[in-house]
Specification:
alpha+beta; 30% helix; 9 strands; 2 domains; Ubiquitin-like (UB roll); DNA polymerase, domain 1; 5 helices; 20% strand; 179 residues; 5-stranded mixed sheet
Length: 179
């Protein structure tokens, strides 16, 4: 155990599943999951936002459910399954949500995108055919300062259709509406 001027400096040691792989990490016990991921595990896909649980920028999945990582202590994830945006793509390619966000232009600056993607993934894992209102409700805790949200909702709808096996394509638009 390391010491500092004020006494012993302790580190917490936990093991958990991170993006499908067993992970062990040591960190200061006061750190949030967001800090552990970014600072100790060097996974920077999860973004710092308000750090008050109000913007959804740091959303990720813990045991398949959306969680604001700025509000969860790293210690609380011992033995749990954590999924970050880095774990969405597979060897086969991007997740359908990632593809749809790119195709629809749903990611402007991209800062809020990881939180939206993972929150939308949790929604689609529990509801293969959500209505627009259900998508809005599921994503209500995620704020975006760049878009008007329509492209984000459309991207979730497109990904949902593809995940159901439909041959869905983005609607083509012209100056006069859909073509």
């Amino acid at each position: 155990m390391a010491k500092n001027r004020k006494g012993p400096l302790t580190k917490a040691h936990i093991s958990f599943e991170l993006n499908g792989e067993h992970t062990e990490v040591a960190f200061a016990p006061h750190k949030t999951l967001l800090e552990v991921l970014r600072e100790d595990l060097r996974l920077t896909g999860t973004k710092h936002g308000c750090e008050l649980g109000e913007c959804g920028t740091c959303a990720l999945l813990v045991d398949g459910r959306p969680v604001l990582s700025c509000l969860v202590l790293g210690l609380a994830c011992a033995g749990r399954s954590v999924r970050t945006v880095e774990g969405m793509a597979s060897a086969a390619g991007l997740h359908p949500l990632q593809e749809a966000f790119a195709e629809m232009g749903a990611a402007q600056c991209g800062y809020c995108t990881p939180g939206f993607l993972l929150t939308a993934e949790a929604l689609l894992n529990g509801n293969a055919e959500p209505s627009r209102d259900e998508i809005k409700d599921a994503l209500a805790g995620n704020l975006c300062r760049c878009t008007g949200y329509i492209k984000i909702y459309e991207a979730v709808e497109l990904a949902a259709a593809r995940m159901r096996g439909e041959d869905a394509r983005p609607a083509e638009k012209s100056l006069y509406g859909e073509v």
